[in-house]
Design a protein that fits this description.
5 helices, 76% helix, mainly alpha, 131 residues
Length: 131
C-alpha cells in the first residue's frame, strides 16, 4: 500500500505544480537580475548619448571659434583692443582731466575698468558703466 501511495504522489498534479514552481524560482530570479542589469545599461546608454551630444555641440562651437580666430575680423578686433591703428588713421586716446583724475582715483578703489569702452564711457559720461 505504501508503494501505491508513493505512486499516487507522482501522479498528483499538485506535486508537479509545486515541483515546477520550485524549479522555476531560480530561473525567475536570474531573469529579474538580467532585466535590472538591462535597465541599468539602457540608462547608462541614454546618459552617454547625452554626453556625446553635449561634446559634439562643444566641438562645433570650438570649430566655429577656431574659424573666427583664423579670420581677418578677429585680427582686426584684437588689434583694435590693443589700440593699434591702420595706416593713415589717427589714434584717439581719451585723456582724463584733472577733475576726472580725482574722481577716477576714488572710483578706482571701487572698480577698475581696463577696456576701451569703459574708458570712453568714463570720458563721455563722467562715470563708469553700470554692470
Amino acid at each position: 500500500m505504501k508503494s501505491q501511495q508513493r505512486w499516487q504522489i507522482w501522479k498528483s498534479p499538485y506535486f508537479w505544480l509545486i515541483t515546477v514552481a520550485l524549479l522555476a524560482l531560480p530561473l525567475l530570479a536570474d531573469f529579474n537580475v538580467r532585466l535590472a542589469y538591462s535597465r541599468q545599461l539602457t540608462a547608462e546608454e541614454a546618459q552617454l548619448q547625452q554626453q556625446i551630444a553635449d561634446e559634439q555641440a562643444r566641438q562645433a562651437a570650438l570649430k566655429e571659434l577656431e574659424q573666427y580666430v583664423k579670420s581677418d575680423a578677429y585680427v582686426e578686433h584684437w588689434a583694435r583692443m590693443a589700440r593699434l591703428t591702420k595706416p593713415g588713421e589717427v589714434p584717439v586716446v581719451p585723456v582724463p582731466t584733472e577733475l576726472d583724475r580725482k574722481v577716477g582715483a576714488a572710483q578706482s578703489t571701487a572698480r577698475t575698468a581696463n577696456d576701451i569702452h569703459s574708458e570712453w564711457w568714463l570720458v563721455l559720461f563722467d562715470r563708469t558703466p553700470s554692470p
